[in-house]
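[scheduler] slot 2 assigned
[scheduler] job type: sequence-to-structure, two independent chains
[scheduler] chain ordering preserved from manifest
[runner] begin chain α
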Amino acid sequence: MLQGNIWKGLLRFALPLAATNLLQQLFNAADMAVVGHFASSEALSAVGVNAPLTNLVVNIFVGLSVGTNVVVANLLGKKDAQGVSRAVHTSIVVALISGILVGVLGPLLVDMMLGWMQTPENIFEMAHTYLTIYLLGAPFIMLLNFTSAILRSKGDTRRPFIVLVIAGVINVVLNIVFVVGCGMDADGVALATVIANAISSITLLVILFRETDEVRVELKKLCFDWPLFVRIFALGVPAGIQGLMFSLSNVIIQVGLNELGSQVVAGSTAGLNMEIMCYMISAAFGQGAMTFVSQNHGAENYPRCRSIVRWAALLLIIIVGVVSVLIVVFASFFSGLFSADPEVIGFSNIRIYYVTSFEIICGLIEVYSGALRGHGKSMTPAVICIAGICVLRIAWVYTAFAVWHTYECLLIAYALSWIVALAGMVVAYLLCVRKLESKVPSAPNSSC
């Protein structure tokens, strides 16, 4: 991360992470496919209607783990071994406590959340069961995100990938066992997901117990270092709030989808799976930009930081561009993987055309947002995304969609909000870099 060829280093970091993200989404897609083909369209809708709420939980957890990723990577760049160890052990404690709190309090709010989303009556009970089981597994989700963030901070994306492959296969097998073999529906899918997350998180924790460097976890060293927690909190909470606001805006869009009927919800759910696959690749390059920039920021090599961002953006444009074009061209094939209903396939194709076509813009937001966080500016991208994406989407739902009450009108909010947010993110990044480089005019040149 600190020297050598940047684009090769980014690919070595991002490709296993992208594969990890894609496999995670494929396993989620398997959930949808199993309930869509072996249960019912109602079961598919019950899982789909919960997607914004489960994403809300995940986005908060991922946001908080961003603080761990940046702080540990920064300390590694400074070669502060003692600080790295304290940050790692503090992060594990934070993950366990916050995960348990969500696991206890979350299920108590399920009725309120599904009611607020105006969940259709014919799928309410299944949706309620699915979300309750999912939230009970929150401690494992939190631990999974934080242990992954610790390994990523030192450039290790290979072992989390291997762990996910194993857990994902178990997830798919359990889906079939619970849904096909035991006659369960959405509840079987949720239970399989929780078990897979438990396997992944515990395995990664065991890996950290067996490390031989600064990130090694030891039970006797578990602590709560207040100054480091403040740094992790200051960087992670804005990212968590950003994820929360993203999810809330998507919840409001989901309310609009619910108003259009369960077939639209099922179609949108199917299309969302393909769209998220592009996003997962984007997120990998965003994480790469954040981690690489954070280490080089710690080493005060700001020109190299700038080269990292340029390479991350270029690689993302090439890879996400190819993937999104393939998904759009073969939209009917991919939609058919989740349902045999022609109406559901039609609604899925519409979502792919209107949203997946613009995923490159969303990906560039991830890269510039990650770069700003790597420089320690976590609040800036959060504010830009809240204003440019979340507020704009909410305004669109209550204005344009209220007038033109169509599926297509609702989907336009995605591309429009991404364009606005990207413009703001690029400006903020350039101002940040100019300020940093002006402080160290003699910083060494980077190698591309």
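[runner] end chain α
[runner] begin chain β
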Amino acid sequence: MESFAFVIHPLDVKDVARKFPFTRFLPARVVEGALRFLPAMKVAHITGVRSAYAEAEGWFVSCPLTARQIMTLPADYVLEKLVRAGRLAEKLGAKILGLGAFTKVFGDAGVSLAKNLRIPVTTGNSYTVATAVEGTREAARLMGHDLREAAVAVVGATGAIGRVCAELLSREARELTLVGRNLQKLEMVADRILYRTGLAAKISTDIKKTLRGADIVITVTSAVDTVIEPEDLKPGAVVCDVARPRDVSRRVATERPDVLVIEGGVVAVPGDVKFNLDFGFPPKTAYACMAETMVLALERRYESFTLGRELTTEQVEEIAAMAQKHGFKLAGFRSFEKALDAAAVERVKEAARQKNRT
């Protein structure tokens, strides 16, 4: 039996109230103060992950800090909390540890954590990128966009994830704009794409202007605050927000029913999987970062597959091939932490039609 563990944490104090209902009556600062005294703990046992080649079990282990705490508390303190979660995973029998939510963007993206553990660590970013590009492609199709004819933009294109997304999209798109703050770095990415795929990508430092003409957007900046607001987007646009913290303002969800915002893909996990934890997904489905950890366990690739802030198209393609081999596949979309079904996508499409008529 192969094995893995995955680190989770409450995004905010509202998530704490799901486990401890009485905390909803307490001030946020009191709840966050209490979290600092909680130890890492086993949250759930994952069973039934099974492909044609192997079977695996796993565990969700908690790092009891909110997203705000992870990003603002002293780095040494947060790292120690993560190390304790990792050591708990080791005691449970996990052979690899996956990082979830803000634990994978904290500090050096897992490098220091891996040095303090006996098991390898992966951020899941390789399969996250693979499913983000696949999900964007499928969402664009459902919204009536042909990737070969659409205006495509990658916001945050000079970062490791943005660059890889841009390279992958450049194999199909004919009109691609790379958006970032540093012209020199943008030119380097554009030159790399021209060399590798033959596409002459445009570059821009004006995100607002670029988005107003973009049909398809992947955004993955390192901004602390949102960078995409409702007024920035074209009717019928598809936006895949891969960034943590999110790049797309929540106002878009309420003010732009004619725009489809997705968080990457929902992944169907092979076997009769039971997560024994409700994290808001349909049964037998998971985040791509979770799925990467499972794929590596099933493949018996107990190594720090995706670690740090560097990423290559080769890594993305390799994990996608392994996932396909074991039966993982795209199973839908999420938007602002909620599942999107076909009817929801159709409503967005109809709203876009109505907007374009006015």
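[runner] end chain β
[qc] chain β: The chain has a mean pLDDT of 93.
[scheduler] slot 2 released
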